[in-house]
Amino acid sequence: MVFVIMAGGTGTRFWPLSRETKPKQFLNIIGQRPLIEETILRISPLVDEERVYVVINRAHRELTREIFKDSSIQILEEPYGRNTAPCIGLAAIHIKRKWGDVPMAVLPADHFIGDGELFRTTLRAGIELSQMGGIVTIGILPVKPETGYGYIKRGRRCDSINGQEVFEVDRFVEKPDEKRALLYMREGNYLWNSGIFIFRTDVFLNEVRNYLPNLYQGLTEIDGVLDGDRYQATLERVYPDLESISIDYGIMERTKEPVYTITGNFGWSDVGSWQALFELKGDQKDANGNMVEGLATIIDSRDSFIINRSEKLVALLGSNQILVVNTPDALLVADLNRSQEVRAIAEAIKRKGLLDWV
Prior knowledge:
Radius of gyration: 21 Å
Order of helices and strands: EHEHEHEEHEEEHEHHHHEEHEEEEEEH
């Protein structure tokens, strides 16, 4: 088996702490290590380092190599971000060339997992199942009516592997509104789509050929020079013309392959916003529900989140559910409940040409 870690995302959802030059996966916002390093350590009991492929944006080359400078992990660089389907495709042709048609488990680099051992048990079951063909997904049992995630509708129970129940996937569902998300939670057969997929390399590449012919043609060109001195030049020429599309839209919603899901109960979060981080670190809140990281004073305020990475003092008076993120060169003040929208600020700053702040 081989693992693929997708680490090419840009730094918009955790602005101003994250930037395009140092996005979320390179931040230590939960523990003492960057999220990408935590992801690698989490799977290390399952696989040798040389069977781990990390796919990054070329702009993050130095950040990545500094973290893994003493490692034999395989680092693949995309010259341009093209969403998850091309990212996985690039890894798949490298893996197929070196390891053949082996199961490949695809993981985002920036998620939180509470129970590492249970997570690995779930992955082992998924990898074993994928060896027989088809596509395996890991779904998360919802704990609230979440509108920020896609969903997997679970079908009939069909197997049990290593104590993990396996279900057929009925369909993939796009992000719902609040009313529909509540309905999904009540029905009990809908799972959050974690973005974790497991399949053999040949299965994935056949799906690309069937549903994403432009991508398949581009990957074929790159594959033809994989071991030669024209690899980098071909990558630069082909990548700009690849369709930017996710594996969810490009393949999962159209596939005729059997698709299975295993329910993950290992304490998962995609850490997708400041509010998600606030909830995840709930044990650090004070008696008024406030959480402070750095130099700050709070008076007569509740349920607020202050992150201060500068030497200046931050003071909050008479405000509830406020987000304050202070860095040496930028300050964010926002309604904590609207932190999903922070990326809009980064986009607005970019439109104004203030590129030093994105």
